[in-house]
Amino acid sequence: MKNQELIERCLSRLRLFDKMLSDEDWKIIENLVEFLKIFRSATEVLSGATYPTIRLILLFRVEIAAALTESPNDCQVVKLMKQRMRQSLNYRLPITELHVVAATLDLSQRNLNAVQEYLF
Q1: Is 108 helix (H, G, I), strand (E, B) or coil?
Q2: Range of the domain at 40
């Protein structure tokens, strides 16, 4: 997205007009970039090596689950991605006893619905 103007200028100078993306293609890319932000954030934070991250797993799982809810602004590509990712969320990012214990020990996360549901 940051390089849209540069990409279009280069393709134009090279006369590769058939390779240029349409406005609809750019909107899809913009939609994908916005959707994928939570995954970038989660990856960066949970990859930290100088601080404990296990207590943050459930918090990010809640955020990811929320991000997987379809929005009226989603393009078809993103809707399909969200649908498939929702189907495999419990497999890819399961709630385990260790995650619940770590979240329970963190006072700021004790009342997360995921913790409460797991305990009851």
Answers
A1: helix
A2: 34-119
**Which pLDDT score is estimated for 68?**
95
In a domain, 16, yes or no: no
The answer to whether position 82 is within a domain reads yes
Which residue's structure tokens are 């990409």? 7
40 belongs to a structural domain: yes
Write the DSSP symbol of residue 55: G
On the 0-12 / 13-18 / 19+ scale of CB atoms within 10 A, 39 is middle
Residue 59 vs residues 30, 50, 84, 120: alpha-carbon distances, Å: 26, 19, 21, 18
Q: What share of the chain is helix, strand, coil (3-state, %, to 5)?
A: 70, 0, 30
Q: List pLDDT tens digits, range 48-80.
A: 888 888 888 888 998 999 999 999 989 999 999
Label residue 83 left, alpha or beta by phi (over 0 means left) and psi (-120 to 50 means alpha).
Answer: alpha
Residue 81 belongs to a domain: yes
Number of structural domains found in the chain: 1
